[in-house]
Amino acid sequence: MAGAHHLPDAGIPQYRQQRQRALKRVAIGRKNWLFAGNGAAAENHARFWSLIASCERHKVDPQRYLTSVLAKIGATPRDELEQFLPDVWKREDQEEPPSQDMALS
User: Fold this and answer.
1) Range 66-72 contact pairs with CB under 8 angstroms and sequence separation of 24 or more
2) What's the CA gap between 77 and 9, in Å, rounded?
3) What are the backbone angles phi and psi of residue 97, rounded to the nearest 5°?
4) CA–CA distance, 85 with 73 (Å, rounded to integer)
């Protein structure tokens, strides 16, 4: 049967396929991460991708999250930074009504 090999196997649970996709991203990126430039750059890269993965885990749009956080984080005291964790941010974002700027986009 032509093309049958492209169909997902009904016997493989969906979560397994999702995990394989997540691991593939790591495997492909590994080559790129070799050339971070220095240790500090590599650590920053790891932090960034940890945030992206956390956003995906909590079903948060990474672009919307980062846009919101980067606009507010500079004026936020260090002891209040927990509000920017993706799960906390999502809860607070759902509670506040959309701003005029967000309604226009």
Assistant:
1) 68/93
2) 50
3) -65, 150
4) 11
pLDDT at 99 over 70: no
Do residues 50 and 22 make contact, with C-beta atoms less than 8 angstroms apart? no
pTM higher than 0.85: no
Alpha-carbon distance of 71 to 62, in angstroms, equals 14
How much of the chain exceeds pLDDT 70, in percent? 72
Q: What are phi and psi of 47, to 5 degrees?
A: -65, -45
Q: Which tokens go with 99?
A: 């701003």
Angle separating helix axes 14-33 and 39-57, nearest 10 degrees: 160
User: Would you say residue 15 has pLDDT above 80?
Assistant: no
